[in-house]
Design brief:
Length: 292
Amino acid sequence: MPKVRTTPIAAQDRALVILPTFNEKPNLEALVLAIRGEGCDVLVVDDNSPDGTGELADRLAGSDPGVLVEHRAGKLGLGTAHIAGLKRGTELGYALLVTMDADGSHQPRHLGPILAAARRTGGVVIGSRYVSGGSIVGWNARRKLLSHSANLYVRTILGIRVHDCTSGYRCYPRRVIERVDLDRIICDGYAFLIELLYRCLKAGVPVTEVPIRFQDRIAGTSKVSSTEITKALKLVPRLRWQRATHHGREVVSAEPEIELHGSTALPSVQAGDGAVTPGSATGDGGSGPAGS
Ligand SMILES: Nc1nc2c(ncn2[C@@H]2O[C@H](COP(=O)(O)OP(=O)(O)OP(=O)(O)O)[C@@H](O)[C@H]2O)c(=O)[nH]1
Ligand SMILES: [Mg+2]
């Protein structure tokens, strides 16, 4: 029997940007408007923020059908917020699902190159600070060192070549999310980012890094705690142990060069669309900025 298409026609080719929020009221409105200006729809996943972020999101949604809101009862973690958004976006039939921090660190102007790379490769695209052309503005040396060390740790333990494993600015084609069982994800917090990336790599999904200019949050406070960092550190060897029991594939590239199972293939695009990092993600545990 033929399958009945349930995808809303309006969503079929569209991108949905998922914004997890907890106390991001000062940042939300300008960000939502800028994302809408890039032609994407928005889903705010708010965890009953005490500062009224959820109410502001409702007001924005009230005047724009391209803005959706999911309210959750309390602070349930970044990972589960991403999962809730990815599931909702999948159900609604969006072709591309983007996750982005709502604190101003991830700029909507990078959406164009990120979406273009996702459409071209059909794989996961990471807005990356650690490929050529990427940068960080506003972090002190200690914060940079922490982030670089975390990425080096993840790359080394997991034996993967992605340079920015902890970036929350990502695009997942819906078909990729449909292939990865989100219900098997064990991490609810920040470690979720590493886990989902790793599961995608193990499923043989190509991963491409597009350089972004990351800037420190515009307003509000960070929600990353030392408990979250410890949880993430403990997760990585656990994933590695699972890896030993599953022999999967890894396909990673930094634009515009795509590495396919050891042989390098150049895609038919030029760097002019903002994807400007030739061949920097090759070699297991390769040395990106975190390693140098
Ligand atoms: N819904 C939801 N969102 C969260 C939760 N924790 C963090 N967020 C959001 O996730 C995004 C990233 O959180 P940040 O606190 O900026 O974490 P970070 O970017 O790693 O850290 P900073 O660089 O210090 O800002 C922001 O939009 C937060 O509001 C949570 O438990 N639930
Ligand atoms: Mg942030």
